[in-house]
Design a protein that fits this description.
This protein has 354 residues and is of the alpha/beta class. The protein has eleven helices and 19 strands. The chain has helices spanning 19-32, 43-47, 51-61, 71-77, 97-103, 112-120, 147-150, 169-184, 195-198, 325-332, 336-341, and strands spanning 13-18, 37-38, 40-41, 66-68, 86-88, 106-109, 125-130, 153-159, 189-191, 208-209, 232-244, 249-250, 256-257, 262-267, 284-287, 290-293, 303-306, 318-321, 348-352. Strand 7, helix 7 and strand 8 form a beta-alpha-beta unit. Helix 1 (19-32) crosses helix 3 (51-61). The longest helix is centred in the middle third of the chain and has 16 residues, at 169-184. The relative contact order is 0.15. The structure holds pyridoxal-5'-phosphate. Residues 41, 43, 89, 160, 194-196, 210-213 line the site of pyridoxal-5'-phosphate.
């Protein structure tokens, strides 16, 4: 059965999700985080994998801090974990204040108006974001001195690294700015590192780390490859096999033309399943150990591959779509984050926990 509730119809693409790898990745990140506690970013529906499936498994493994972007995402997992363990990164929109407070979620206050609104509404535990150098969300270091900030009951004081996956002085600069703020502002805990930030070493760990990508099998920096297992595998069904003659155009826009006689397979997966057009003429699939390179453009619902070496491949067979995240990122020009969050629910989803 697929998640849309349809029953009995054949799936054309499938997402296999490895719950054991997900948990093992979080545990590896917890080890790499040393004495710091390790949370989990589960925003954007658990990076596309399904927030509830992710949160249930990580909570069981001992994770006690979950970071979402929207208040609605907090509500969607609120029955699975304690409300005070859910932190809302995108901050506080006026309409949400009363509900956030009533439900006991932690808003991440990102601006002085948000700080004022939170205090005027009665205050209570909250998180506070400092912009240490990426000009996105958070109080500037100067704003921290505002008197209203001193009256906050700060659970987690945090900042976010803008270039953690790069070897650049910007990391040390952000670290230094954040340390200065930590020395000025009392808080129960301090938190700076995302997945790549954990790999920057002990100075970046503080009391709590906030990995996302690496939990889901992404490899933000090469040194993490040895600690992270793949969680997501994608496969698609063969809908048709064709013989191509020399000169035959393949797919929309004829971006591939058969240079000789070939055999192609048309698969039931396309960009509407999250297999985006960046894989046109660059992605690949596999049947057993045989490579099936993508031919021409990815269509909305269909993909054409070279099945010349796959003797014995038949209509109805399943083939694996190569979706190893670092490789697929290079092939498609999409980030590993986009590859995960773009996955759709039209594919049948299967979690296994071995
Ligand atoms: C998304 C996010 C994270 C997780 O980052 P990854 O690079 O996926 O590990 C951590 N902190 C904040 C503020 C975020 O927005």
């Amino acid at each position: 059965m697929n998640e849309n509730g349809d029953q009995g119809w054949a799936a054309q693409s499938r997402l296999d999700l490895d719950g054991s790898a997900l948990v093992a990745n979080w545990q590896a990140l917890a080890r790499l985080s040393g004495d710091a506690a390790t949370g989990a970013a589960v925003k954007a529906d658990g990076y596309g994998l399904g927030a509830r499936e992710v949160v249930r498994r990580l909570a069981k493994a001992g994770c006690r801090d979950f970071f979402v972007a929207h208040a609605a995402e907090a509500a969607a997992i609120a029955d699975l974990v304690a409300p005070q363990s859910i932190s809302i990164l995108n901050g506080l929109l006026n309409e949400d204040i009363d509900q956030i407070r009533a439900r006991g979620f932690r808003p991440v206050l990102n601006s002085l108006p948000q700080v004022r609104r939170w205090i005027e509404g009665g205050g209570g535990p909250c998180d506070l974001m400092i912009d240490s150098g990426m000009a996105r969300l958070g109080l500037s270091p100067e704003q921290v001195a505002a008197p209203e900030v001193a009256s906050l009951e700060i659970d987690t004081l945090m900042s976010h690294l803008g270039s953690a996956e790069e070897d650049t002085v910007r990391n040390a600069r952000q670290l230094s700015v954040f340390r200065d703020i930590c020395a000025q502002l009392p808080a129960r805990r301090r938190s700076l590192a995302n997945s790549a930030g954990i790999a920057l070493g002990p100075d970046y760990r503080f009391d709590l780390t906030r990995p996302g990508l690496a939990i889901y099998g992404g490899i933000p920096v090469p040194s993490m490859a040895q600690h992270v297992r793949s969680v997501v595998s994608l496969s698609a069904r063969v809908l048709q096999l064709r013989e191509l003659n020399t000169g035959d155009a393949v797919g929309y826009g004829a971006t591939f033309v058969a240079p000789h006689r070939m055999r192609s397979a048309t698969l039931g997966i396309g960009y509407a399943d999250g297999y985006l057009r960046g894989f046109s003429n660059s992605g690949s699939c596999r049947w057993h150990d045989i490579a099936l390179p993508v031919l021409g453009r990815v269509s909305m619902d269909l993909l054409i591959v070279d099945a010349g070496n796959a003797e014995g491949l038949q209509e109805g067979d399943w083939v694996a779509v190569d979706y190893d995240l670092p490789t697929a990122s290079r092939q498609s020009g999409l980030s590993q984050y986009e590859l995960l969050t773009g996955l759709r629910h039209r594919s049948e989803r299967r979690w296994t926990d071995s």
